[in-house]
Amino acid sequence: MPEYIFGDINGVFEGDNFPDRIALREAKIHLVTVAGIDGNRNVGASSIVLNGGYKDDFDIGDEIIYTGHGGNDTNSKRQIADQSWEAIGNKALLVSEIHGLPIRVTRGAKHKSKHSPQTGYQYGGLYTIVDHFQEIGQDGFLICRYRLKKNSTNLHEDENPSSLLTNAKETKRSYVTILRIIRDTRISREIKDLYNYTCQVCGIMISLRDIKYAEAAHIKPLGQPHGGQDTKDNVICLCPNHHVMFDKGMFTIDSKLNLIGIDGYSKLSSKHQIDLSNLKYHREHVYIND
Ligand SMILES: [Zn+2]
Question: pLDDT tens digit string along 73-121?
Fold first, then answer.
């Protein structure tokens, strides 16, 4: 089984061109040479290629509405059956959406968009899947669709830096109006797996069919001036409600794992060592105790 890399590939920049799918595979951008979606139902999808396979695809650069796979007659490109969320690639895209995983986007010359290259394939950067929906496509069958928003710009150094700034700003602004995207890191995934995606405060586990959802909450916040780390001793597994309440200081946790501000105590796996100084920091700097 291939090892999936999520995110940018070292040495590959947005706008880089590749003559064919073999070259894309060799560059580790997209490991499969025929399918448009690279990934599986366990890890999620790491990459998609748009190359005119589905006429319902929509692409304005920073936003793409991508059609899942299945039910397509490869010769006529017409939809001849409904698509299903359970098809491997479609499920992989749902997993990526739920875990906030970055997805590489590559456009081929056959993809009808002004962002497509004249020939071959062009790497278009990292996107995040922000929502999904099902609807009747142009050929009259159900299609699975995903809205992708561009994450950031990763251009060669000789590209215009001002365009980079503008793009970054726009992307940031659009996220604010869409939803709260919680991105998985390796550490957050490990902690969520350890608790089987069950909230350490209320014990609730949310799932979309069989895709489990929980959030990794940093006890000592990341970034300045807090300086919290993305390490297992600074992360707990919470449901979205308790994550927001914890981040906003509506409750905190003492050194014996009793909850302060709300009733109860925090469950802790014997395999999970929390740094008590991080809890102390949360009590002293984040918790609103008046
Ligand atoms: Zn909870």
Answer: 878 878 899 999 999 999 999 999 998 899 999 999 999 999 999 999 9
User: How many Cβ atoms sit within 10 Å of the Cβ of residue 112?
Assistant: 12
* CA 290 / ligand 1 centre spacing (Å): 23
Residue 248 CA, ligand 1 centroid: distance in Å: 14
Q: Angle at the Cα of 286 (from 280 to 290), degrees rounded to 5?
A: 100
Predicted confidence (pLDDT) per residue in 32-55, tens digit: 999 999 999 999 999 999 998 777
Q: How far is C-alpha 20 from the chain's CA centre?
A: 26
What CA–CA distance (Å, rounded) separates 258 from 48? 45
Q: Hey, is 189 helix, strand or coil?
A: helix
Residues, beta carbon < 5 Å, ion ligand 1: 199, 201-202, 239, 242
By the 8 A CB rule, do 122 and 51 touch?
Answer: no
In whole angstroms, give the CA distance from residue 283 to residue 256: 13
Q: Provide the whole-model pTM.
A: 0.81
Cα(first)–Cα(last) distance of the chain, in Å? 54
- In angstroms, what is the span from residue 243 Cα to ligand 1's centroid? 7
